[in-house]
Amino acid sequence: MDTPHHTTIHKTYQERGYCSRAGYARVREVLRACCWLYNRALEQRRDIYRACGQGMTMYRQMKELTQLRQAQQFWRDIGLTVSRGVLKRVDRSFKAFFRRVKAGEKPGYPRFKPHQRYQCLELASVTAGMVKGNRIKVKGLPAIRIRPNRELPASSRLKALRIVMHGRILTVDLVYEEERKSLATVASAVGIDVGVNERMTFSDGKTVSRRMIDRSRETKLQQAIATKKKGSKRRRKTIATFARERRRNTVRNRNECHRLTTAIVRNYQKIAVEKLAIKNMSRKGGSRKRGLNRSMMEQTWGMLFQQLRYKAEWAGRQFVEVDPRYTSKTCSRCREVRKEKLAVYRVFVCPLCGHTEDRDTNAAKNILRRGWGIRNEGQVCLPFPPTLQRGWEYPAQPTRVG
Ligand SMILES: [Zn+2]
């Protein structure tokens, strides 16, 4: 099962945006208006569906938007691509809803959004002229400056542009269509087992230690919020500080995941992981398992695998997810399956051939075999970080081919 090959990929550059004080106020104003439009468009679709059982198309709503624009100067001032973007978003959430209905999943009807949670402006269409150097100019929005850490691919095609406001922080997502750059092939394969004791265990014995998060600041802020009077200015300020701290932790984790997945993709040609079912894992058990659930959630394997998936595709690596059943109860040497409960928790001992190994490493080997049908005994592999520490040197990017 090879990862599909495309010649082009979509790459998102997420940049912090800056504008004038009045500019931020304008972005907030436009967001509010767009939130209103979003909810009205949703309402209209719902009412028409209830009245005559018919759907409302995006194009009919766009026609009505034109009328709105003719009637009100305010809407004329907001660029057409901004307001159309809202209707497109409504359309997308309905399409997703119908897809879920069709697939027999729990449908979850599209919901009205409170303005606090409407934070993203997604343009209906983009032109290359919207990005000039480090300035973003969209009609109806203030000029936004960005300071990219890496150079934007000026020769690539801009596919999408999103402007997101989180509290006081403005971010700009620039999606470019780029040529796929395959990495030089390396002769190594890996199976990865995930767990709570170690965040990841590799079939060649390496591990990435579990993620420990210092939540003391968050807890303190939460307590501070609880003691302040509702509706007071100080409470609002503390909430903003708390949100910033939360976001900082999220970004920190995301960056850590990026460093880790980049290293994995550079090091291994064939990658196998287990197919996750986190939803099921965490729902069972109730309060008894709450502590475990929490530490499981914090390992964010879903994010790691998602990054692995697309980075593997970008780099021309092979990535596969395998059925995880019995991977921790099978002997990686003789393939004997032990169905009874494992008595010694951390160590796997095979009753048939006596093979003794760390439980997670054994499982990782089984995952590798299930995914790629190989064992990686005696394979050569580039050095890999045992834990993620600051200052660790990642291997230089191999020369690109093709
Ligand atoms: Zn055995």
Question: Would you kindly provide a written description of the structure presented here, covering whatever features stand out?
Answer:
It is built from ten helices and 16 strands. With 402 residues, it is an alpha+beta fold. The strands form four sheets. Strands 2-6-7-1-5-4-3 form a seven-stranded antiparallel β-sheet. A five-stranded mixed β-sheet has the order 11-10-9-12-13. It has two domains: 8-179, no CATH class; 189-212 and 260-401, no CATH class. 41% of the residues lie in helices and 19% in strands. The chain has helices spanning 21-52, 58-71, 73-77, 80-102, 216-227, 233-267, 278-283, 290-297, 301-315, 359-372; strands at 8-18, 120-122, 131-132, 135-136, 144-146, 157-166, 169-179, 182-183, 189-194, 198-202, 207-209, 270-274, 318-322, 347-349, 356-358, 400-401. Helix 5 packs antiparallel against helix 6 (233-267). Bound molecules: zinc ion.
Give the N-to-C terminal Cα separation.
22 Å
State Rg.
Answer: 25 Å
Tally of DSSP helical segments: 10
Principal-axes shape call:
globular
The largest sheet is: 7 strands, antiparallel
What is the β-strand count? 16
What is the typical, i.e. mean, pLDDT?
83
Strand content: 15-25%
